[in-house]
Amino acid sequence: MGVTAMTDNPTREASQPDPDGVPQDWQGHPTPPEGLSVWATAQRTGPVQRRGRYVPESVKHPARMLPAIAAHAVHAYTQPGDLVLDPMCGIGTTLVEAIHAGRDAIGVEYEPRWSNIADANITHAHHHGATGRASVVRGDATRLSALLPAALTGQVALVVTSPPYGPTVHGLVRPGEDGVAKFDNAYNDGADRGNLAYRDLTGLADGFEQILRGCALLLRPGGTVVVTARPWRKHGQLVDLPSAVIAAGVRAGLTPTERCVALLAAVRDGQLIARPSFFQLQQIRKARSRDTPLHLITHEDVLIFRQPPAENHSGSEISNPGEGGVLA
């Protein structure tokens, strides 16, 4: 499935150039020109994007979404006052960017360690002027209907989330006398296998389908789901997570509408400036030393689904059944 142009971007906000010549919205988030499927979300590094906007403990999560990716999705697919959901919210990146943009947000997180940090990030955002409301629910996102209030049914305008890539990811590094030590690279200590990160691709896709089914019940007619995902290699073989996510969304009753890319590399003078991790560089160098032509990862797939519009008795579509206002 190839990259397709964006066909619907209803809430693009007035933009202005930044020092690098890339248009920005009113909050300083990069916005690509109209009609492009490429999101310029890494003009600044992840640490720079989070600095002062998130509590320091946020760096401990092994697979943080770039704030600019969440912010772009929020601005592109919602209006101020809309409700945004992240069923696998981690440290609360989606929630923080939503409430800074004047939207309300609710997140679900399986591991208490991350949900506590998400709570701290929401409080931090409010102390720095965020006007939206947000809350985090602890629990298993495959059981959304049992976790969230029934009053949320049909109220969510946008879902933004990302499935895990496995029990361990790149994490952080610290140089020492015995070489480079890796830490904060796992979702938990391995004792609790309830996290989807510990399932194989089939199990992960099945669990993610359950999550999307729950999201579909909460979405308002015409609501949007944005999922970031990228393939990875296991024992040298490519694991096609994006295709598995698309199939899961279709099985959940959602309609795929767009496939975009969110850059993990900066754009400078028409060139991509990669921002690889230490371990990604190490893996690429080892592969090339074995004459395996691997390349640095410079983007994530952005898979966009829509909840089919409701129909009234005359057969005409109803795209927005009502307003939010369900968060305390």
Q: In whole angstroms, how far apart are the ends? A: 41 Å
* H/I helix tally: 8
Rg, rounded, reads 19 Å
Residue runs with pLDDT of under 50 for 5 or more positions: 1-22, 166-173, 312-316, 318-328
Q: Roughly what is the average pLDDT, rounded to an integer?
A: 80
Strand order of the largest sheet: 3-13-16-10-7-4-5-6
Categorize the overall geometry.
globular
Total strands: 18
> What percentage of amino acids are in beta strands?
15-25%
Order of helices and strands: EEEHHEHEHEHEEEHEEEHEEEHEEE
Helix content: 25-40%
Explain this structure.
This protein is α/β, with parallel strands linked by helices. Helices cover 26% and strands 25% of the residues. It has eight helices and 18 strands. The protein has an eight-stranded mixed beta sheet, with helices on both faces. A two-stranded antiparallel ribbon has the order 1-2. A hairpin with a 2-residue loop joins strand 8 and strand 9. The radius of gyration is 19 Å and the shape is globular.
Short summary of the structure?
This protein is an alpha/beta fold and 328 residues long.
How do the strands and helices of this protein lay out in sequence?
Elements: E1 16-17, E2 23-24, E3 38-39, H1 46-50, H2 67-77, E4 83-86, H3 93-100, E5 104-109, H4 112-127, E6 134-138, H5 144-147, E7 156-161, E8 172-176, E9 179-183, H6 201-218, E10 219-229, E11 232-234, E12 237-239, H7 241-251, E13 255-263, E14 266-268, E15 271-273, H8 278-289, E16 299-306, E17 310-311, E18 317-318
Parallel strand pairs: 3-13, 4-5, 4-7, 5-6, 7-10
Antiparallel strand pairs: 1-2, 8-9, 10-16, 11-12, 13-16, 14-15, 17-18
Helix pairs in contact: 2-3, 3-4, 6-7
